[in-house]
Amino acid sequence: MNNAVFLLGLICIALIAGADSDEIACPRQVTGKQYRDVSFQCFYSPTPKANKYSRKFCCLQGSRPGRCKHTVVSDSGYASDQFLERIQLVDSKGESFFTVTIVGLKKEDQGTYICGIGQDENGIKGVLSLSVVEDSQILEDAVLLYAELRGSVVFKCNYNEQGAPQRKFLCKVTEDGCLDVIDSTGRTDPSYEGRVSADVKAGTFTVKMVQVHKLDAVYYTCGSDNPEESKDTPKFDLRINEVTDIPQGSRLLTPRPGGSLSAQCNYNPKKSYTEKFWCKLEGGECNPIVKTDGYVKSAYEGTVLIHDNSTSGQMQVLMTNISSKDEGWYWCVMIGEKHDQTSAVQVRISQENLPGLSGNTFVQVPAGDPAKITCYYPCRYKSAEKYWCRWRNDKCEPLRDVEDTQESQLVTCQTEELVLTLRSVSEKDSGYYWCGVKDGGRYGESITSRLIVVEPSRGVSNVNGRANLGGESRNVQVIVTPASPDGNKSGTVTAAVVSVCAAVLVVCAVFLFIRLRRRKNSDLVSVGSYRTNISMSDLDNNTGKENPAVIDLQETDISRFEDSPKTKKKGSRENLDYSGFLVNSVTGNPEEQVVE
Question: Domains of the chain (ranges plus CATH)?
């Protein structure tokens, strides 16, 4: 029993000794032609720092797997007698790889080699097999690709196109065949959705994979629907360095409709990057929306912003006014001269109607007047840090003239507001202003308000719910006086104003009616027990003229009570004067007066 346990222990030790380390990646197979030269690279993790400055070596493996027979080359300049003046090891510390070159290959150079970091093979090491062939036909070795965990990697496929362009693809080699990852039409396997993009050019098909993880460490190959084009396509051996100190941000963001999102993009601050940007993955391509150098895509003006802290290696991307068209996959991209890093984030609109920041979307103010922009925040942001800032392409300038108020008569905090006051605005104050919250230096939800300062004579027309400003139509709400987020309160105030206006109109109508009746009755006389519109001059003259100005007065037919035949009533000059008074009363002529 004890012998069996001891034997099992020896087997485990042997297996462990022969295993490759995740902190170094060397090609599994290297093939060279006899009397020619061959070279290969071994990549190593820059974490910990000791890897960069420790000894690099390659040795010939002995009879025991994972054990060196003797060293053949090291970065100190040492070379064994077998490879004297034929072998060289160069360490590229800044790029975390070393290169081994052998010239004048001999048949006896063929064998298994161990390359590693440290004083012996007990440290970080990788195992490779070197083959030396005599004929001119050399089998294509797999191209070694080494990527950091949650980093990115690029597959470049070259084709000798024959005839009409054919569909190109990158596939993952499995036991059951080759599974297409992405093709030149943009069609992507669901397991890689949001993590791969494709660039198609004449004779070249390039695929970028981001947010790589351990399961991606397999063989890949390029292909074409034309078999003749697929003969010489390369095979890739992807290895993943799982040792990383870069924290991973959220891969799924669920902002509310009309709300905002905050994406956290982390990177290694010790590496230098020439370009950093945020892009949306569409049609297999990821075109930048905003960059740290100040570039902003025109369709996103005023609604997207990058906060980059190169000291801590943290980049935050903020987007406001989120709608269904913003759903999809986005990439945080950091591009360097020798390396880059990309992380993927999916945006999906939340179905929950959670309370969030609200306020003025659009404010127009005449030049010289003060401007007040109001931002309302719910209870959950009561203890968070609130701010106003003015949006620029490359930053958001903090503003200090801010008032934080709360209506004391209400027991809830739903009416808490953050008011930005700008005194005596001018045209230079026009632009986008952001209201937002942050906690511990990290930016959270935010909203955008646009301020337009115009000449005092210029107004705003609101047609079909769109504000028309000098011929420019935008789908925004025109608000000059800040609106309260409390719907009931707003409805109550509106109802009260309408009721007061209606009461004033009724009083004015009654007053006008009584006044007109009094004017009318003062010109009527009684004949017997009947009232008529005949004036005193009509009684004296027995004649009159028609009064065409009075068309709505009700006449009393006296003839039906007498035996005399019906006669047509004639109007008098006095009636014409009275009619003129009525017309002037209706039209509001201040010069027309009645003498009692």
Answer: 23-133 (2.60.40.10), 143-241 (2.60.40.10), 252-347 (2.60.40.10), 358-485 (2.60.40.10), 522-587 (no CATH)
